[in-house]
Amino acid sequence: MFADDPSRKQQSFASDHLIGERSKVLVLTGQSRAHSAIVDSFRAHCDLVETTSIDQAIELLRHEQFDAIFSDTADFLPLERALVSQQTNLILNTIGEGVCIVDGEGRCNWMNRKMQAWPPRVHENVRRACQEAFDLFNKQIPSQPVDPAAFSARSKRYSLNIEDQQFLEMITSPVINSSGQVVQVVAVIWDATTTRRMQQKLDAIDKAGRELAQLESEALAKMTVTDRLALLEEKIISYTRDLMHFDHFIIRVLDRRTGRLELVMSSGLPAEALDIELYATAEGNGISGFVAATGRSYICSDIQRDARYITGLDSARSSLTVPLQLHDKIIGIFNIESRQRAAFSEDDRQFAEIFARHVASALNILDLMVGERVSTSTKITDDVASAIAGPLNDIASDAIALMEEHIGDEVLHDRLRQIVENVEQIRQGLDQCKQGPRTILGTQEIKVEPDPILNQARVLVADDEPNIRQTLHDILRKYNVQVTVVSNGSQAIAAIDSQPLDLIISDIMMPDKNGYDIFAAAQRKGGITPVIFMTGFGYDPNHSIVRASQKGLQDVLYKPFKMRELLACARKALKARVTE
Hints:
Layout: E1 2-3, H1 6-16, E2 23-28, H2 36-42, E3 46-51, H3 54-63, E4 68-72, H4 76-94, E5 98-103, E6 108-111, H5 113-117, H6 120-140, H7 148-151, E7 156-162, E8 166-176, E9 182-191, H8 193-213, H9 218-221, H10 225-242, E10 248-255, E11 260-267, H11 271-274, H12 286-294, E12 298-300, E13 318-326, E14 329-338, H13 346-405, H14 410-435, E15 458-462, H15 466-478, E16 482-486, H16 489-498, E17 503-507, H17 515-524, E18 531-536, H18 544-549, E19 555-559, H19 563-579
């Protein structure tokens, strides 16, 4: 409200109650007392605050709230400009970005409070960038007069690295005068350190993931499946510690036949945490079971208040569990624990989920390589058998025909008979190869001789393939070995618990238990009974080999293996046991 016609204003105010009962009004009287009668009439209706200067009025408006302002019309324009300026400063000093104005000489003519709070090294980097932008804008101005509004839409973006400790993003825009010249540069600056470091970590995780998946190189192609798994484990543990900064973690893979979460690898967790049996169900199987069943990550900020938490790290206070996910399918879980309460943030969850996808992909590539090896080996054997079947038949037929033509020539008959027998051995060998993991090669080559190491050794053989069990039983018995044969994991564990053994030979995959279950049963009896694993073409979906290798697995045989290889492994294991 501004005083122009005192009598009309007084009437309108008094009659219409524009301001209302006991409203708070700021009165700027200046040096004039011409409107004192109007001001006095307000007192009956309002709480008045009087001032004589614009500066005082602005100061009052900065700290107090008013319903109306009364002043002379002569004071209106200066007051309005002062209020706008004050509001502009308030806005610029309130926003979270730094704002400054720099001239062509690199002098900073004005900066807001955010900019002032930054250290001198930031000011210097910003000043240099603004001066560079000033020169660039001047070069871009056309020779003809330019509309300042149109040209001011141009801007230049800068990324500033402050001594590798702080990252700033900055946008500069030109200030154009009425003559179309660039006179200053306005810069808006914000701290992008958190965003940049997050991006750097995402890039590092992506790089680590690519390295985990690089299993097809020439060097890796020469490795056994065991060596590849060991290398993968080494990389995962290294990246998890150095890149993710997680020291205590465990990775479990889901066995889809049983729903069990099988331990694959771990770091920094006690034995009792590793031996817990967990299944992929939302209730009753801890946080890991919940994550495996639902596919949802889970941050446990305080394990003492979370009923789902099951024993893990000694003195653990919080945990983070994310799914191992591959093509929308859950193949396991990745669980991290900390001795600090609320140690894991949403950023940690995001990083762990991304890293876990790379781990899942790497594990899957190993399985695909094993599957490819099985398919390739089977196809090659079939192709070879088909290709030589005809020639073998011709050789055998020709040999028999010659034997009939030369009856009475015993020397020739013996040679031809040997040819026929060799052809039959070749056929049997090819049939064995075609059976792949269901057979043992080279059984006919074995010449049984007394062996003091094998003599009276107590050996357990566990395999769900009847041919494997029978072959091992028959040949080991020839060496006077006391053989116990079982067809599944439960029977194997029962045998381990009920009788003394000198050696255990076990398949990795059986209907109820896996190789590591059997190895763990042997470990519980003191860990002195050596264990040899057998696996079809290196197939190890639960990664029993890597897990058992950490605790003293004796050896691994990849089916189809030769009988002499198994005998050599058995002698080595038994001899080492006697030495110990």
